[in-house]
Each structure stands twice: as structure tokens, then as C-alpha cells.
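Contributing: when you submit paired examples, paste them exactly as shown. First protein:
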Amino acid sequence: MISLEILKQRRAFNIRSFFQQVLDRVKPARAEQKRDSYRTGWWQFAETRVNLRKSSAGLARFVATCRTAKHRVFGFLDADILPDAKLIAICLDDAWLLAVLSSRFHISWAPASGAFLENRPNYNHAQCFNPFPFPTPSEPLKAAPAATRRRPRRALQAAAGAAPQADADGDV
């Protein structure tokens, strides 16, 4: 999907071959919409998401999760992606915060504090994210996730100031 969201109509017309397809396929359907913003901005995918664009400006990535899902999974999405209504975008690019959101504590918190759609938990930022008691990390612990890609146990032990211990394979 190509978003023409931030383009004005005149600028969008300059992309002639692409715009002709939008003109032929989208404009007739949008002319019948009840929503004024869909009729007047018929070449745009949906209503502009100004707050999301402002919040994610300057980020290379952001955290996202599916709004309604049996299993809660958080991950990074590239900042060029503009999520639709089925994704919750959290405009943070900090790996430590992704780790907290992916923790058992938060994964247990979310369905307990959020709503349900049929039998699937619905992640709602006002109920699941905003009131969540995020811990304040020490600087070494906050820096640890970047170093955990190769040897997670060693990096976390070093961040905590503990002596490295061998795992079951004898690897430190």
C-alpha cells in the first residue's frame, strides 16, 4: 500500500500513472461515503494520523503489537510503516522498554487490565499501557539489551555486577 496521506491533491496528481488508478478505483466509492473527510480527501487512505506522525518523528523504529490477539507479542516496526487500526503503535525505540513490554509481568498485566473481543484479549493503551508500573532501570541494566544478542547470560550478569557463570554447555 502506498500512502498519499501527507500529499496535497495537486501534488498527488503529479504521480500520474499511479494516481489514475486511484482516480478510477477509489474516487467513485469515496464519493458515496457519509464521512466528509473521506469524500473531500478521497485520494488519501484514511484520515490523517498527525499525532502518530509527530510522535514517531525522528525514530528509526517503534514498538507495535496487534490490538486483538490470543498471544501478546511486541516487536519493532520500521518507522516508514504507518500502522492501521489493528496495530497498537508505541512510539518508543528503546530495546529495554521493548523487553519490559515483552516481560511476563506486562504480558500477564495486559489481559488482566484490558478488555476482550470474544475470547481474545484486546490491548488498549489507556487500560494496559498508561497505568502500567514501568520500572526505572539502572544505567548498566538499561544498556544491557544491546549486548545480549550474542551472549545474553554473560551480558546480564556483567550488567548486574555478578561474576560470569557457565551454563549447562560450559559456555560463559
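Second protein:
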Amino acid sequence: MQKYKITNFSLPPFFEQSMQIFTKFLLLYNKTHNITGIKNAAIADENIYDSIYPLQFLKSSPKTAIDIGSGGGFPAVVLAAAMPSCHFTLYEPAAKKSAFLHLIKNELDISNMNIKTKRIEEDAAKTVELITSRAVCDTALLIKLSKGFYDKNTIMLFYKGQRAEEEILNLKNVQIFTRQKRKYIFIKGLGGDV
């Protein structure tokens, strides 16, 4: 029986094993480098599930994605492992977190993931099909930071907390899905002129 199971989405056969390795390195690395607040495997499992949960609402299979402020790898590392046919570029300006992401990429042999030790606004924009972010900044600023990376077909998936509804008041083509205290904001159809 699968440990991580979501409706309407099939995880690759190696996913669980990859997440066990990810969790092992996250907890080990976290002891000395303070990458995240995650202190045990149960909390790591919850964060892994939180990362993949919104995939059941994704109505397409994107081939290119970026993650803004990838930190300790949630949701980006988990999504890259769950979606091997989608190439992810992770933006993480903090050197110690970026080093951890490079370590995980190598340990898990994630060939569909690239890490850039810089802020997204410091890179040349290239349109992608999916933009993700968790716990970085408010939605309006995320949209502003990702200008040039999206067009009318790009889906934005932002992992938010209780203020999610406030952050999207003036946006169209938005859906919010809720699980416990998490709000998953899906935005599509912004075009390049927002």
C-alpha cells in the first residue's frame, strides 16, 4: 500500500523511496545547518503530502516549471520527484539551502531539476507552464517577481495560509483548494501584461 496517495494522480513507483532518502538527508542536514523547522520524520511526511496534495487539481501535465524560494525543498523537490516528465528550475538565493538542494538532487538522482543560487528577478525570464512557491511572500509580489516567466497558459500554484483569500481579491481565474490550514491557490490566464 502506498504511503502517499492522492486522487486523480499517479505517483511514480520510486516516489516513496525517494521521499525516505529526502527525509533522511533533510533531518541530518537540518541538525547542523538549520534548513527548515522540520525536526522529525512525521512532520517531514506531512510536508511531503502537503506538497503533492494539490496535484489532484492540476488539469494538465506541465513540462516546464519554476519554484520561487525553494528553501528546504518543499514543494519543489517533492514535485520534481512526483512529476519526472516536468523540468523544474529552483530559485534559492541562500547558499546553504541551495547547497542542500544540490545534495538532494544528486542523492535522489533527480535529472529533471536544476538549482539556481539566485533570486528569480536576477535571472533572464523564460516562459514556463507551472510556477510554484510556498511561504515566500504574498501573491501579488509573487506574480510581480515571476513576470516574464508566465503567459496566458501558465498555471501558478501557491501554497498559502489563512490570508489566501485576502491576497487574491483583485485577481480573476483563481481557484482555492483547502486542506486543513493550507490554502492552495491556482491562478491561470494572467497573460504577460499583469
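If you have annotations for the second protein, write them as plain sentences, like these:
Residues 105 and 113 are 7 Å apart (CA to CA).
Helices lie at 15-33, 41-52, 76-82, 95-108, 139-145, 164-167.
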